[in-house]
Write a structure and sequence with these properties.
The chain starts with 6 loop residues before the first helix and ends with a strand. The protein contains four helices and 19 strands. It has one domain. By secondary structure, the chain is an alpha+beta fold. It is globular, with a radius of gyration of 21 Å.
Amino acid sequence: MKPSQPIMPRFCLGLFFWAAIWAPTLEAVTTISAGHADIFEVEYLTTDEDTGQPLTTPVLHLGVHTDTNHYEPADVLLEVKETAFIPSTASFPSPITDLLGASAWILPADLEEAANLGVIEGGVAKAGFPNNNAVTFSLVGAGSDNPGNFVLFSAANSIRLAAIGGAVGSNASFSIVTGHIHYNWGFSAPGTYTFDLKASYTDADFGLLESATETYTFNVIPEPSSGALVLAGMAALGAVRRKGRWHAV
């Protein structure tokens, strides 16, 4: 009988080939779980971000903006902590409770409340636009594996966007005129959600401008007793996002 070949050299060789194939595609993913963040921010750009040269036609660019950085939506995981869970939604009107159910996870529009909970202070913003004309945000898709419903609604309980599982609801778009507004971000169940969003604006000189469609990913953390769902959420994220290293903000 021939002696078996050492396992470790073959294992290391396999890792080498795996790294050679996948390492070039690895990109950092930043987890945002607290502090101020304009989750939906659209910028009006008149110069190329890479070359600094003037653009023939302005471009709308969707991103995520914190107090310290700008991120591409695909490079961000927006974490909704378990402290965002509220056991009763009875204080909200029926159009919202119909979507969220009797209990929900909500990132509050009230900044002090959000800060006290240690969760994201989530806003919607426009930047660099030449005037106060309206900018429209449109929800064009929701992930088929979304574990529950989503509602974006104002402090006055007016629904701006809604998704029922993997289907976009009747509230599919809304507009802002002022540069910065905070909203309530509600989720009916824990798990990983993805949403496809684009922005549009009618320019006085160039007509209708539209951003590229961007995918936003939220991970809603369950109550501590259901910690296994956190791992499930991370696994689901890996199925819908590029592989990467995790960094927290």
